[in-house]
Design brief:
about 325 residues; alpha/beta; 434 Repressor (Amino-terminal Domain); Rossmann fold; 3 domains; six-stranded parallel β-sheet; five-stranded parallel β-sheet; 12 helices
Length: about 325
């Protein structure tokens, strides 16, 4: 029987540090003293943490396939289908099959998937399927960082700097004389690193400019009645000049209701989609959209996993995927 895989929890206990400090040191994030970073990485190497899963896989036989897991709650969004298209293209170009992982936790634990590695997009806290996949002895790449690295121990992470883009979008609106921003986000059903980064960027910008934050959470698929009541509260409490929409398609759905209440998007109201929908938002002059380029995101995730499997990247590693703000 093989030895139990060393985790961040083990490293934290060995070093007497918090899990967060250990994770930040390993992934080059946060404000960790250089001597602490060196101590953590030396201990990780000594205990066999670094590259552990990739090394196990290199010692075994390859099956020529990788798995892709998308949380069920978001599979209906076009963003994830575009991500899949990019991942499929990159996998094919590298002689790799791509398998969509859809079985539940019990099925995965009883019959693990025959894959060389796994990509998980937008890992959600407490997801039992993701926990089962993370426990497999194959490299795991996440598109979006796990919020609890002790729960999901990723070998590679690829992220979008949403804080930066939120601030840039708000700065652009402020340059046009708009001052009062409001933020609509998905509720706790989809509490990912995306949501945390958006809120962090929004709150920090508001703090720097002396603006009181206004944040409301909505279901991923809100009814027309829910949207109407949210807009009523928004106009009564904030009367925003900038409205940030935190998931794909929401800004597009708000155009008509805003127009009906006399707050049509335009010079006096900047309606912003933080994940621009290619059909209803990108290219619409009434909406300012962040193009996360999901096809490129999927490609980059496969290439990161490929590099881990080939040994040209060493776990843990992180990369950045660039989004863009198109001109319309």
């Amino acid at each position: 029987m093989s030895a139990r895989r060393v985790t961040i929890v083990d490293l934290a206990a060995e070093l007497g540090l918090s899990k967060t400090t250990v994770s930040d040191a390993l992934h080059g994030r946060g404000r960790v003293a250089p001597e602490t970073v060196a101590q953590v990485r030396d201990t990780a190497a000594a205990l066999g943490y670094v590259g552990n899963r990739a090394a196990q896989q290199l010692r075994g036989n390859r099956v020529g396939a990788v798995g892709l897991y998308i949380p069920p709650v978001v599979r209906s969004f076009a963003f994830y289908m575009e991500f899949v298209f990019g991942a499929v293209a990159a996998a094919g170009e590298n002689g790799i099959d791509l398998v969509l992982l859809t079985r539940d936790e019990a099925a995965l634990r009883s019959r693990p998937p025959a894959v060389d590695g796994i990509i998980a997009i937008d890992p959600l806290p407490g997801d039992p399927v993701l926990a089962a996949l993370s426990a497999l002895a194959v490299p795991l790449v996440t598109a979006g960082r796990p919020l609890d690295p002790a729960e999901i121990d990723a070998d590679g992470t690829i992220e979008v700097r949403y804080q930066r883009y939120v601030r840039e979008l708000l700065d652009r609106a402020r340059g046009r004389g708009l001052q009062r921003p409001a933020l609509l986000l998905p509720d706790q059903q989809f509490h990912s690193s995306f949501a945390e980064d958006v809120v962090d960027g929004y709150r920090s910008w508001c703090g720097e400019h002396g603006v009181e934050p206004w944040i409301r959470e909505l279901p991923l698929h809100p009814s027309a009645e829910t949207l109407a009541s949210t807009l009523d509260a928004l106009i009564a409490e904030r009367d925003p000049e900038i409205l940030l929409c935190g998931y794909q398609g929401l800004a597009g759905r708000l155009v008509a209701p805003l127009d009906r209440i006399g707050r049509a998007p335009g010079p006096e109201l900047d309606l912003v989609s933080l994940v621009g929908d290619p059909v209803t938002e990108l290219g619409d002059k009434r909406i300012t959209s962040l193009d996360v380029r999901p096809t490129g995101f999927g490609r980059a995730s496969v290439l990161l996993l490929r590099d881990l499997l080939a040994g040209t990247a060493t776990a843990p590693t992180s990369r950045i995927h660039e989004a863009s703000i198109p001109s319309v």
